[in-house]
């Protein structure tokens, strides 16, 4: 941690505990606690129970979890494919072309997601492409939102990739596709999995654009959480939130286990 | 059989010498490299200008020059990683100027080796073979053969990160040689190694070339020792231009320009004036030189004399007298710097009792054939 005296190290840990624990850990702890109680009127909650979890993993809630997982999976796979392809294309463009691509893919990040949601809604509400009222409009909006992140992390990784590898491969007689498949993509794999994880997590938590688009038969978990807390069922909402958190973390953990030889570089 | 196919068949049979199997020399027999007026520019600045050079089949050509002189650029023009603004590059009888790198049939080893970190040594070496769709059965055999050639047979299962710098260098060489390219491009392949390893690898490269006499090698270096040891001919480069080409011996014995004279070996460059057939004046001393030529009296010229061709005493044809300004001990020799007629003359003399001390007056001399008049 760049601090070498024992006292200094303790001081750094103390600051870390004071600043980061309340900021990041405490709210999550509160939710976890709330999800296990029936009543919270004093300083501490009371009436420990597992009933919220029982309902959070059944029926409508379970369906919402499955909707979220499917949406996030499809959106992050599509985003990774499109983002990687666009980043590779941008890398082979000139300086001006690359700037244009960067700007294009910055848009969904720069524009508030409510606006992106509205834009998607308006654009696909009438023929020829009529997606409104179907699950596909949710998936489309999520893909648009997270592709920007995929594009950015892949193009950052591409910029760091030493061109000597691709050149060595080409001079050995490998065609561009072969170089891409056997050299560039394997070397980029650590960044690709990181990007996929990021996209997945973002999509799992997306609420604002989804709110404007979701059809009755495709209600993702964040919307369910919002509806629960809106009704006043704070404890049920908390249990759902914990389920969302756990599901996302599990998937991220699995993705981070995809180790490649390239990551030992 | 259509006529054009017949004639093609006939030609290919004649053009192919019996011993050269197609894979051996990139399907074309031994090839050389030819640069024709190649100019490369970055943002309007020429980094290689009107570069004209021919490297014969089986020849080892060293590109020697200071940092930034355009050596790597010339090499990359052959490999296809820079596009010349003007001029053509030929490999054998093919004009490769407009071909993509993968279609050029060159082997290349760069300074940082660029071994693929995610592949084992054997897969690195097999890469070019697989990319060229070499039949599966042959790949393993050729990989083993290439690794054996560089003495790395026992390391096939390792990853590049598990090898030392010298071993990585050998693997990079094996990877380039496995595809049996017609030309081999080496860009300062030894510069990442320490001095001892470097001289070992130099001997190894020399042996490899004797084993593969048909491969044309372009060897970029800024180390004159490497160039003089390894190359059949040396091309001296300076500031984007080719200065001189010749055998190491010719460049050393009789450089034509002062840049070559001082870059290849060390040299005394003395300002002289011409004074008739085979004679020049240096200060008020008249010197005899071997270089024939018009003795248009009074014209300024530069005389090159190698320090180790100068001896102590006044026994030679040309005698210079002056005061010793510095004496350095260099093991087998002393380097004596004399001030003669306001100029410094350096002599490498063997250790002896008569070596002058700083401040002594001394005479040195050299033979007429050791004085080379330069063009500039
Ligand atoms: N991609 C590039 N963009 C702009 N200028 C470049 C580029 N590559 C090389 N140059 C310039 O071209 C000139 C020649 O470069 P080159 O790499 O050929 O030199 P070199 O003789 O190989 O030198 P060294 O011994 O240091 O490797 C240098 O002045 C360098 O700054
Ligand atoms: Mg260079």
From TrEMBL, chain A:
Belongs to the binding-protein-dependent transport system permease family. It is a multi-pass membrane protein. GO terms for biological process: transmembrane transport. The chain crosses the membrane at residues 12-36, 72-91, 103-124, 136-159, 187-214, 234-255. PROSITE patterns: ABC_TM1 (PS50928). This is ABC transporter permease subunit. Keywords: Cell inner membrane, Cell membrane, Membrane, Transmembrane, Transmembrane helix, Transport. The lineage of its organism: Bacteria, Bacillati, Actinomycetota, Actinomycetes, Kitasatosporales. It is found in: Cell inner membrane; Cell membrane. One of its GO terms (cellular component) is plasma membrane. It holds the Pfam family BPD_transp_1. It comes from Streptomyces diacarni. Gene3D superfamilies: MetI-like. It comes from the Bacteria. The keyword Cell inner membrane applies. Residues 65-256 form the ABC transmembrane type-1 domain.
